[in-house]
């Protein structure tokens, strides 16, 4: 399969500080790839370079085989971009705006009308066609932003923090829409929120201080990010001191009569030691599992450490 996006040895410097260093990324199929990183990690810089908004200091980016710097017009035919602040015109209606963006994309004039209808249908904004953009809710403005990124049917759709600032209902709708889009397009989506990336992405690229620190499937990421707490169900709950006596246990938090959260030092041998202690002291262990609910915190700690 031909590569949709290929980034080779990409580096970018703003005056004296490097925002991106030696980045290599390849996307060859539809689906959603998450670009995860804390604030200032280099996500927007990378996306702006991919989309030809910013010229890189070093390295090469090709989209659908075209170099974004050397053949920008060809490359941009296959890029749809939703920047962090959507480029909307408040005094345009949805229809006016989408016709305008289609013209900016130098689309074949005879195809624009049908393309506008199709993208409105896809993003669920058809019923607001003649409403001014300034009178739309945040969630609908975001949809219009996504619609302009899709209008020319690019192979690659780049969404910079698309779920930022949405309320819980809008979030659910936006995730659903992005998943639908990913059936036909390769989507690169950035976020600084791990749980957000987990909800929508199959693959994740984590960057910190401009460098890739992890790139694989979301499942592999969960294994890489070993949580340092466990959820343990015990029929005969012991006293705190008995749990703290198990080697590696640093803190315990009783959640219910039978469930306890155990914080440990990161040594994976903890499971076996808890099982052994339970057998010896008749705690009647029912279940022991990695505590994924705190992974967001682990991610925050990891990203602070690498800064
Ligand atoms: N125009 C600029 N001039 C100078 N430095 C910049 C500029 N834009 C970004 N930076 C710096 O480059 C680094 C990467 O920024 P970037 O915006 O790419 O990160 P990010 O991961 O997108 O973070 P955020 O989510 O906060 O936008 C940061 O240290 C930032 O301060």
Name of the CATH homologous superfamily of the largest domain: P-loop containing nucleotide triphosphate hydrolases
Instruction: Give the averaged pLDDT, no decimals.
Output: 91
**Tally of extended strands?**
14
Q: Give the overall form.
A: elongated
CATH fold-type name of the largest domain: Rossmann fold
Task: Order the strands across the largest sheet as they lie in space.
Answer: 6-7-8-3-9-10
Contiguous uncertain segments of 5+ residues: none
Tell me the number of helical segments per DSSP (H or I, 4 or more residues long): 11
Report the sheet-strand fraction.
Answer: 25-35%
Small ligands present = adenosine-5'-triphosphate
Largest sheet: 6 strands, mixed
Considering DSSP H and I runs of 4 or more, what fraction of the residues is helical?
A: 25-40%
Give the number of domains.
2
Following the backbone from N to C, one meets helices and strands in this order, namely: EEEHEEHEHHHEHEHEEHEHEEHEH
Task: Please state the CA-atom Rg, rounded to the nearest Å.
Answer: 24 Å
**Architecture of the largest domain, CATH level 2?**
3-Layer(aba) Sandwich
Distance between the termini: 36 Å
Estimated structural class: alpha/beta
Report the oligomer. single chain
For the record, the CATH class of the largest domain is: Alpha Beta
